[in-house]
Amino acid sequence: MFKSILQHLRIPYSLYLMPIFAFAACQYPFSDARTLVISFIAIHLFLYPADNGFSSWFEKRTSGYITLRNYSPVPNGLLLVSILFDITGILLGLLISWQFALMLLIYGVVSKAFSHPFIRLKKYGFFALIIVAVFQGGFAYLMSFLALQHLGFAQLNDPKIWIPASLCAVMILGFYPMTQIYQHSADREHGDRTASMILG
Fold first, then answer.
1. Tens-place pLDDT, residues 17-41
2. What DSSP string runs through 129-170?
3. b vs e for 160-173, b when ≥16 Cβ sit within 10 Å of the residue's Cβ?
4. For residue 172, which of 143, 129, 142 has the smallest C-alpha distance?
């Protein structure tokens, strides 16, 4: 069961979003290696995998993602582990600041609304694409930058921060539909019509 849960958390896939964090890290100099390590672990080893596991749990997929080919069926403990990963990530975030922890929580809630059957933002085509671009791109950049630079929310109101955050959102907007190509058949089964399907 442990191996199956680990597969569905898709930690290697989470690392594909690392350029957002790296971009935030290289914007301005900082000397706090502890914050760098904690924020990286909270985001890439707990927050993103928790969302991956949550998505797999509700979509019950064993295929449809390149990284899920030949994976085992969704195990019973996956949802619980996903929630525990979320909590762990937020607790790690508190070691940096309550603002960072709150942003981790907000990101997690929006991400889960994307695949939860009661809300399922994913089915709303281009609106869903905008949500993904804003949160996986711009919000993730702001979250990382806030943590690395030990900022508060008020200090994020700066064009020098919002411009690169917007660039991250545009980057996600551009390539996210391509990452959904392998899910088209499964999405049809769920009655979804994603932006990737609309764009062909």
1. 899 999 999 987 776 899 999 999 9
2. HHHHIIIIIIIHHHHHHHHHHT--GGGG--HHHHHHHHHHHH
3. ebeebbbebbebbb
4. 129
Nearest Cα neighbor of 92 from 30, 152, 143 is: 143
Question: For every residue of 5-24, which 3-state class applies, written as one string?
Answer: HHHHHCHHHHHHHHHHHHHH
As a whole number of angstroms, the distance between CA 153 and CA 71 comes to: 41
Q: How confident is the model at residue 66 (pLDDT cuts 50, 70, 90)?
A: very low
Sign, Cα dihedral of 6, 190, 192, 64: positive
User: 141-167: per-residue pLDDT in tens?
Assistant: 999 999 999 999 999 999 999 999 999
pTM: 0.84
Q: How many angstroms separate the CA atoms of 110 and 115, rounded?
A: 9
What is the C-alpha to C-alpha distance for residues 93 and 83, in angstroms, rounded to an integer?
A: 15
